[in-house]
Amino acid sequence: QDHLVESGGGVVHPGRSLRLSCAASGFTFSTYAMHWVRQAPGEGLHWVAVISNDGSYKNYPESVKGRFTISRDNAKSSLYLQINNLRPEDTAVYFCARGGQSTGWHYWAFDIWGQGTMVTVSS
Amino acid sequence: DIQMTQSPSSLSASVGDRVTITCRAGQNINSYLNWYQQKPGKAPKLLIYAASTLESGVPSRFSGSGSGTDFTLTISSLQPEDFATYYCQQSYSTWTFGQGTKVEIK
């Protein structure tokens, strides 16, 4: 069964850094693009990062560019999100999600999601 | 970024009702439109991709239609387990979600 499990969230002070992890199982991780999506308390969903299956392509919305870094280790079937200079507005549940697998992968929907990990930025 | 606008933001309906949610894109996105269901405290679940293709395992009472800028999610006969928030998402140019439509019990 295809499965994603996030970890690494917690309560952090503004200005600090945090690395989130996402462990994949049940599918060939190295063949899929992967995404991070966040959801602030009581709010909607916002895409924050994507990485291609081989790590050669990464992209972010302007709102997080320069502070967020996505990476992956295909040998460990793991996805990561490094968040630097944390701000109170980064407080959210962070989900990892599976993207596309082949030509046109960027058009694919997010078909598998983890349960999310909560990040709270507060002094 | 492509703006996605859903309507209504919330609705009240009864079990057995036919429910329709609309999603409008800020520009032509062909059929690169996906629908998700999210229940409180849970991860989103993919319902429909490419505007009208039902994800495996999703009940046939869910359907999607549209292309270009205007899209619709329809639940033909609302069931108790369908009370949730629904999001549209475009995957034509990076990825953006609508603001969500909360379906509540009347």
Indicate the proportion of strand residues of chain A: 35-45%
From the N-terminal CA to the C-terminal CA of chain A, the straight-line distance is 40 Å
Q: Helix segment count of chain A?
A: 0
Question: Could you tell me which chain pair has the largest interface and how many residues each side has?
Answer: A-B, 21 and 24 residues
> How would you describe the shape of chain B?
globular
Structure report:
The complex is a heterodimer of chains A (123) and B (106). Chain A is built from no helices and ten strands. Chain A is mainly beta and 123 residues long. Chain A has a six-stranded mixed β-sheet with strand order 2-10-9-4-5-6, with no helix packed on it. In chain A, strands 1-3-8-7 form a four-stranded antiparallel β-sheet, with no helix packed on it. The model of chain A has no long low-confidence stretch (mean pLDDT 97). Chain B has 106 residues and is mostly beta strands. Chain B contains no helices and eleven strands. In chain B, strands 2, 4, 5, 6, 9, 10 and 11 form a seven-stranded mixed β-sheet that branches. Chain B is globular, with a radius of gyration of 13 Å. The model of chain B has no long low-confidence stretch (mean pLDDT 97). At the A-B interface, strand 5 of A face strand 4, strand 5 and strand 10 of B.
List the helices and strands and how they pair.
The complex is a heterodimer of chains A (123) and B (106).
Chain A: E1 3-7, E2 10-12, E3 18-25, E4 34-39, E5 46-51, E6 58-59, E7 68-73, E8 78-83, E9 92-98, E10 117-121
Parallel strand pairs in A: 2-10
Antiparallel strand pairs in A: 1-3, 3-8, 4-5, 4-9, 5-6, 7-8, 9-10
Chain B: E1 4-7, E2 10-13, E3 19-25, E4 33-38, E5 45-49, E6 53-54, E7 62-67, E8 70-75, E9 85-90, E10 96-97, E11 101-105
Parallel strand pairs in B: 2-11
Antiparallel strand pairs in B: 1-3, 3-8, 4-5, 4-9, 5-6, 7-8, 9-10, 9-11
